[in-house]
Structures are given as C-alpha cells and as structure tokens.
Write a structure and sequence with these properties.
The chain is built from eleven helices and five strands, in the order E-E-H-E-H-E-H-E-H-H-H-H-H-H-H-H. The protein has helices at 29-38, 55-65, 81-86, 100-114, 124-130, 141-158, 168-180, 188-199, 204-221, 226-231, 244-260, and strands at 3-8, 21-26, 43-47, 71-75, 91-94. A five-stranded parallel sheet has the order 2-1-3-4-5.
C-alpha cells in the first residue's frame, strides 16, 4: 500500500521518494489546508525551517477534522519541543541541517507506524460532511488564487491604482502573497519584495519603487481616500500619504476579513 504524505516545505530536494510513501510538497500553510480538505493523506510533515506560515492554525484544523493523522514537525530549535507537542505534534524531529539521511529515518518511522493503521485515511472534507460543517476551504488552489487576485484588483481599482500604472501588478501580487502568509508583513523589505521580484524577474528595489509610484499616483488623484470608505472610518486625510507597508497591510487585512465573512 502506498501512503500519501502531505509535506509543508519549499525544500523539495530532500523529500524524494521513499518505499511505500509518496510525498506531496506544498510551501504555504493555507494551500496545504485546502489540499488536506480534499485529499486523504496518511500523515503530515511540517518543516518549520522551510514552510511559509505558522503551524498553529494548521494544527487546529487537523485536530478538528483529522484528529488521528500523525504529524511530524521538523525543527532546529529544541526549545520549542514542548510548544510543538502541546499543539498536537506526534513526533518532533530536531536537526541542525536537515538532510536526506534524516528524511530516510523519518520515512522508516512513518512506514512502521502506518503499517499498524488498518482503517483508510479520510479527507477533511469527508469528516466535515459527517459533522455537517460547510465552511472548509474546499477550492482548488489555482481557482482560489485566481479569485483572490481578481478581488484584490477590484479593491486596487477602487483606490485609484489601475493596471496601466507602474506597480499595479507588483502590489497585487504582494497582497496575494501576504494573504497566504500574513507573517511576511513583518518582513516586507527583506522577504516580500524579493519574493515578488523573483516572480517578475525584477529586483526588490524596483518592486519597492514601483509600488511607491502607484500609491503616489493614486494619492495625487485623491482616490486613496476611498480607503476610508472601504473601512468605514477615517484612516487618512488629503495631507497624509500612506506608505507601501500601510497599503499592503490594510488591503491584505481587508481581504482576510472578507474571506472570513
């Protein structure tokens, strides 16, 4: 029997095939949740050093809908052992530099454990159906991302940032990435801009300047004040020009609120 393992990591070279195990890697926690909702995985591996997004929310999701699935958390910080065990990790594996040798050891442990499991795994959606829950994120990743980009574009148009303005595509992508991984908002210069730049074969400096330019154009038009209407409160006046980080964080927050609602 082949067991399908969901791996949350962007370090794919380590997760090669292992006898009896088929690894399905996903960088973002939010995307991994959508996959787990549809696919009956036998186990989950969360690679703390290479995953985008905190594991606590994902563990709450698993504990609610897939409580019996084994979860391996890989970390190089032994101080977090109690934290990881406390949120439901079945195994916490520590390694300063994770290699294929370590992966083989985990693969062996998982194979032995899963050989004792007699009941087939169930996707979270099946568990949710049994509980009559309808609020799981069941969209396919591509459709979800496409819809998110359209929704972000609609908001950008409302505040005067149009597709013909240099920076429109950069800021739209930045907001989508931040939605998938809100923690990146704390690392806009060092992580978010470089990630956007890589997608457009550009540089972090050019991304920052282009986004600043698009905000400047919208502010000169007076359309940036439409943010006040979106939030229902006065965020900025005509003398206050918001920064790149403020606009990205505000619009990301707006999108997240609408997703929840």
């Amino acid at each position: 029997m082949i067991h399908k393992i969901l791996v949350i990591s962007n370090y794919q070279p380590v997760y090669s095939s292992y006898e009896g195990l088929l690894f399905d890697t996903e960088e973002y926690v939010s995307s991994a949740m959508r996959k787990a909702a549809k696919v009956p995985y036998s186990a989950v591996i969360y690679d703390a050093g290479y995953a985008s997004g905190e594991c606590s929310g994902f563990m709450e999701f698993l504990n609610e809908y897939m409580p019996h699935i084994p979860v391996v958390i890989i970390s190089n910080d032994e101080a977090k052992r109690d934290y990881y065990k406390g949120i439901g990790a079945s195994l916490v594996y520590f390694a300063e530099q994770f290699t294929k040798m370590h992966m083989e050891e985990i693969g062996s442990l998982l194979t032995k454990f899963l050989s004792l499991v007699t009941s087939p795994p169930a996707a979270a959606a099946e568990v949710a159906a049994a509980k009559q829950v309808t609020s799981l994120p069941l969209q396919e990743s591509n459709d979800f991302r496409k819809n998110t980009m359209k929704a972000v574009a609609d908001i950008l148009l409302q505040i005067g940032i149009t597709p013909n303005i240099k920076g429109f595509h950069f800021i739209r992508e930045a907001i989508v990435i931040a939605q998938e991984n809100p923690q990146i908002l704390n690392r806009i210069t060092n992580e978010l801009y470089p990630k956007v730049a890589k997608l457009f074969d550009s540089t972090a400096d050019r991304v920052e300047r282009a986004i600043r330019h698009s905000i400047e154009v919208a502010w000169q038009k007076g359309k940036i004040n439409n943010l006040n209407a979106l939030y229902g409160i006065r965020l900025f006046n005509k003398c206050e020009k918001p920064s790149n980080g403020e606009i990205i964080a505000l619009l990301c927050d707006k999108m997240l609120m609408e997703t929840v609602l």
